[in-house]
Every structure is written in structure tokens, then in C-alpha cells.
Amino acid sequence: MPSALINVPAKARRGDVIEIKTLMSHIMETGYRHTASGAVVPRDIITNFTCRYNGTEIFRADFYPAISANPFITFFTTATESGKFEFEWTGDKGFSETASAAITVE
Amino acid sequence: MTVPRHRTRRDVVRGAAAVAAAALACPSVAQAAPRVAVIGGGFGGAACARALRRLDPRLQVMLIEPNTTFTACPLSNEVIAGLRELRAQQFTYDKVAADGIVVVAQAAKSIDAQARAIGFADGEKLSYDRLVLAPGIELRFDAVPGYDEAASVQMPHAWKAGEQTVLLRRQLEAMDNGGLVVIAVPAAPLRCPPAPYERASLIAHYLKTRKPRSKVLVLDAKDNYSQQKLFEKAWEELYPGMIERIGLSQGGRVTSVDAATNAIVTDFGNYTAAVANVIPPQKAGHIAEISGTADHTGWCPIDPVTFASKLVPNIHVIGDACIAGGIPKSASAASAQGKACAAAIINALAGKPPETPRLDGACYNTVAPGYAFSLKGIYQPKADQYAESEVTTSPVAASRDVRQREAEQALDWFKTITVDAFG
Fold first, then answer.
1. What architecture (CATH level 2) is domain A4-105?
2. What positions does the domain Sulphur oxidation protein SoxZ occupy (chain A) (predicted)?
3. Which of A23, B280, B317, B410 could form a disulfide bond with B322, CB atoms 3.0-4.6 angstroms apart?
4. Could you list the mean pLDDT of each consecutive 10-residue stretch along chain B, which spans 423 residues?
């Protein structure tokens, strides 16, 4: 039941440094755990996160099994123009989720 | 009516001098009875002081507590919801004093662990052989931006029973029908982990009966909590659609507040409350910090068998302030720890090896009048920390008769634990 939470300021002045927050619900199963009967619980993690600002990639992260469940990523960027931030998470078992948020730059 | 008289430190010092003089006058008495001081007169401290006297009536026991009235937290959520009066939560130290415990109605200002002395504001000192700290919690007014002590007047925490409890109740009473009540819950560890949810339930009860268009929103820095299934079932049964909870992974962690506008901000949302109950993160009470018994976490590491501080010699720490592994911070745990600590001190003073404690804890949650459930546990030291050795939670599927009986048991439990501590 994946779901993304995004926090991008709705408005900013040109040149402002803005904070962007994202949270993706995900179990982030490490692949190192075993069931009671000894079978390995298969790895199921998000492996990649990207953010594009009007089509240009401004942030990227690779995830590994040490990242906790429900990864919370926050980063800063400079507001340059009005438009759209697009977020994408991909991972094991064909995991792929997207989200977007608009910003007005004055 | 008699006015209770609390002995001052001067009386204590004089008393101690008299004991010393008697010892000098009578060479056959090798030494005065050991002196055990207990700082903090809550459930842990009061139960510990009384247990010390009960186990060894020769001991000189001092209970240092600046408040002359104790206001109990358990059942105080019912006061907030208008189901109980604050005075039913209040107790004095008269019976503690009647046990022969010297009650010092002053705040300890410093502890000199080398000299084994407690300092007071006016420079007087009290010496001890063993010291028990039962300081409870201190609210961290530096943890949530915008939430300091001044903000707590507008956005009460009501996490220490007393004025704050009444303040939250008055705000609910003054609120219009249709208002949003927001409860901000911190991450663990916190005093009485299920209490925020009991509070949400009882506030919903008040709103349902008086202001039915209102709602409760719980913003939570945790995903899971104690007795969650029982609470969720009760909310569905009793308050459908009235309580919404946003957990950590849904963005429920509160990142800042603004008392001027009653605004509460999370990583992913902004909320404006009609009534805001902000429960900030907590740490061990102030005296723990100045005594050096608290570590970088703000809480006090202890030896689970004796409650001896791992950081400062001859000091024991009990109750909410100590790091007790699997034991939830609760009145019940503090009381059990107080008694076990008393036994450990008696053994230590007699040069006997400590016995391994087995602590009982009980935690009742009343979610509506005549509707309660509980968690009961037995806790024992395991690998240098307390672990649950047995935990029983009320069944999720149970008849209203069962819930009714538990509500009655909750009142019996409160009576027992308060009589234990305050007589």
C-alpha cells in the first residue's frame, strides 16, 4: 500500500533556498532476516529516488538495506522558476511510484 | 481541622544533631542508624520511603519534596473530560510523616556525591548514607520549536497533573461545538505510554456528550503504541468518525507550534486547533541532571537488581527517570521499583547480597465511563536490563461486562496504589 507524502512550498521568491520533504511508505525489508522455519525473507527495498525540477534532475539518492522503513528524505534547492517538482521512487519487485508538486516563483 | 505541619530542614538538622549527641553520650552505641534520603514524593519516592521504614524501623528516612500536596496523574484524564474532580487526585504527606519519615518540604538544589550531602537553596545541607532519586520527568521545553513554558499556558501539556490538567479542561469547556482538538504525541520514551490515547478517548467522550460536531486529531511521532488494537476497537465502537490519528509514517510528527495562533505544524501539514494539547518530549527530572545520574539520553542508567545509578555511587534512581528497559514508565512501575529499591538498600546496608526483584506492573485505560481495559506485566532483570517475563493484555473481543469490570478494577487499583504511597 505505497503512498507518498510531499512538502514543497506553494510559493517562493526567485533565489530563495527552499526545503523539500518527502516520505514514501515502504517496508524496506533488508533480505537479511529469516522466518521461524529458517527461510530467508527476500529483500524488498526502494533502490532509487530522484527529484526533477521542470524536467531537470536536481536530486538523486541510492538506497541500501540499512535504510529504515518509510524513507524520509529532505533536501534543499534554489527556487528558480515556477513549475513542477516530480518525484520518483523505484525498487525491488518492480516497485515504482511517482508524485509531483507545483511551485509558484515570484 | 488540624493544619499539617511539615518539618523544616532545621528540625531535621537539629534531630540529626540530637541523634549524634545521643550516640556520643552512650559509647555502647557504635554508630547512628543509617540515613536514607529520598528525593521526590511521587508514587516511587513515597512508596520507597515508606517501605524503607517498614522493612527497618531503625532507619532514618527523609523524604525531600517541595510540594505539600501531591497530584496524581493516573485517572487525571478523567478530570480533563469533566468526569472527576482534581481534588480526588490530591494527597498530602501527613501519613508518610506519621510513619516516622521526616518530610522536608524543600527542593533539593545540589547533590555532592563525594560528601554524600544534599544542598538546599539557603546553603543548608543534609547528609545521607544512601540517596534515592525519584524525580519523575521534566518536560523538554527546548524540543519542539515554539513550545516553551510560556506556550504551555496557551497550549497545555497536562502531562504533570495539577494546574495544567484544569487548564486543558477549561479550554475544552470554553470551546465551541465543532472545534478541533489536537493532541500532539511525542516519540518514546514518555511517561505513561498509552495515556495520550486514553486522553483522546475521554476527550471524545466529553465532545460526544456536549459538543458532538467537534473532532479529535492525534498527531503522533510514533507508528505503533501500547494496546493499539483495543483503543482502535473502542474508538470504532464508541466514537465513530470522531478521532483521527496520523502516525509517524503518515507524517504525524509535530515539528513546530505557534501558541499565538494555535497552529501545529508537521513535516507534511499545518493544523489550526481550537484546543491544542501539546505533549512535548521528556527527560528525567531536573535533580537527575544536576546529580550527574542522567546520561546523554536525558534518562538515568541503573543496575536493574539494585536500582543503583551506573554513574554516581550511593545513589539509586527509581520511577519514570530511570532506564528500566521493558518496563513502561508508570505509577505502578514506580511504586514497585520503590519497594524493590528499598529492599535492595536494606540488604546493602546489612552487607547482604541483593535479591533479584520481580516487579508487577498494571496499567488501566478508561476510554469511557464504565469501559476500561488493561495491560498487566511482570518484569525481571535480564542481561543488565529489565525485560517482560509475562504480559497480559485485555482481549480485543470482550463483552461490555468485561470492560465494566475492568473500569471498576481501575478504581480499586488507584485506591491501592495511593494508599500504598500516601496512606
1. Sandwich (2.60)
2. 9-101
3. B317
4. 47 46 42 91 98 96 98 98 97 97 96 97 94 98 98 98 98 98 97 97 98 98 96 97 96 97 96 98 97 97 97 98 95 97 96 94 96 96 92 95 97 97 95
Q: ω before B193 within 30° of 0 (cis)? A: no
Residue length, chain B?
423
Task: Give CA–CA dist B359/B340, Å, rounded.
Answer: 8
Q: From the CA of B249, how many Å to the nearest CA of chain A? A: 6
Residue among B146, B212, B205, B202 nearest B176 (CA): B212
Does residue B108 contact residue B119 with C-beta atoms inside 8 Å? yes
Interface contact flag, B267 A70, Cβ < 8 Å: no
Which chain A residues are closer than 8 Å to B268 by Cβ? Answer: 5-7, 21, 23
Residues of A in contact with B220 (CB under 8 A): none
Reported pTM: 0.90
Min CA distance, A73 vs chain B (Å)?
11
Q: Please answer whether residues B21 and B48 qualify as being in contact, where contact means their C-beta atoms are separated by less than 8 angstroms.
A: no
Q: Please list every residue in chain B whose beta carbon sits closer than 8 Å to the beta carbon of residue A7.
A: 267-268
| Every domain of chain A and the residues it spans | 4-105
Q: A22 — phi, psi (to 5°)?
A: -135, 145
Chain A residues touching chain B at CB-CB below 8 Å: 5-7, 21, 23, 25, 69-70, 72, 74
pLDDT above 70 for A1: no
| Helices B195-210, B228-238: crossing angle, 10 deg rounding | 0
DSSP class of residue B168 equals H
Longest dimension (CA), chain B: 77
B249 and A6 in contact by Cβ < 8 A?
A: no
Find out whether B155 and B278 touch, Cβ atoms under 8 Å. yes
Partner-chain contact A25 B249, CB within 8 Å: yes
What pLDDT score does B32 carry? 78
Cβ-contact B334, B134 below 8 angstroms:
yes
DSSP annotation of B227: T
B267 to A23: CB separation less than 8 angstroms, yes or no: yes
CA torsion angle B376 B380 B385 B386 (round to 10): 10
Radius of gyration of chain B (CA): 22
- Residue numbers in B near A9 (CB within 8 A): none
Q: What share of chain A is helix, strand, coil (3-state, %, to 5)?
A: 5, 55, 40
The distance of A22 to chain B (nearest Cα, Å) reads 8
pLDDT at A2 over 60: no
Q: Hey, is the C-beta of B360 within 8 angstroms of any chain A C-beta?
A: no
Enumerate the residues of chain A whose CB falls inside 8 A of the CB of residue B250.
5, 25
